[in-house]
Amino acid sequence: MSSHHQPPHAPLLIAFPTKDALQHDLAAFIVRAQKDSIDKKGRFTIALSGGSLPNMLKGLISNSHIKWNHWQVYYVDERVVPLDHPDSNHRACTDALFAHVPIPAENIHTIDPALFGELEELADSYEKLLIHEFAQKDAARFPVFDLILLGMGPDGHTASLFPAHDLLAEEDRWVAYVEDSPKPPLRRITFTYPVINHAARVVFVASGADKAATIAHVLEHPEEGLPAARVRPVFPGQLYWFVDDAAASKTVYPRTEFKL
Known about the structure:
The structure is a single chain. Helix content is about 25%, strand content about 15%. The chain has a 6-stranded parallel beta sheet, with helices on one face. Strands 4-7-6 form a 3-stranded antiparallel beta sheet. The chain is globular and about 45 Å long. The protein is an alpha/beta fold and about 260 residues long.
């Protein structure tokens, strides 16, 4: 990151008594981010992950405050499988959310299946989608998403950025490819840290006791450099952890009360 940036804000940990309460208030947070963005510039740019995240977005389905025609949706990472394959993040987000809401299909930006044979070209083509969305409008070195939603695996990976992988050091590319993922499927594309860390808001969403030890490790020992701990949005961006009490049960990191 360039040296003139002010240091990042400390992450805010917001814990909810139940997964349902988390889903409800996460939807309220997304609505607020959407409103701020549309009021400022007439559009809302959001990037989604796969894994357990899509099912945490169900609070958006019946929310009357969502202006779906103003959303521009991208994927933080994607598995290189057909878009209707069970491993596809796009399929997971469609099944959990998009099939149930009136979002225009052209506002959801997927990877191009015609390029699956050539990973570098596939990553470049997705980067070009970001350039088209952001470069003319924002004139920034990296895109500035209004909101990026992330999950985290038990090993501390996020997006398709895995522990001890070379991509953790990538500083130039916006979108990179992975052909040796430690968990299947092996081939993926992923946003890099500069893209994630330039967002206005980044939210990790996690629930369940199986995430508790890793969350404690990431929040209390960021210097150890687990992939999730390297998500530190540059100022004035803000990082949030939306978790349920089970996921927060092993950390002594201070909690912040949820306020819109």
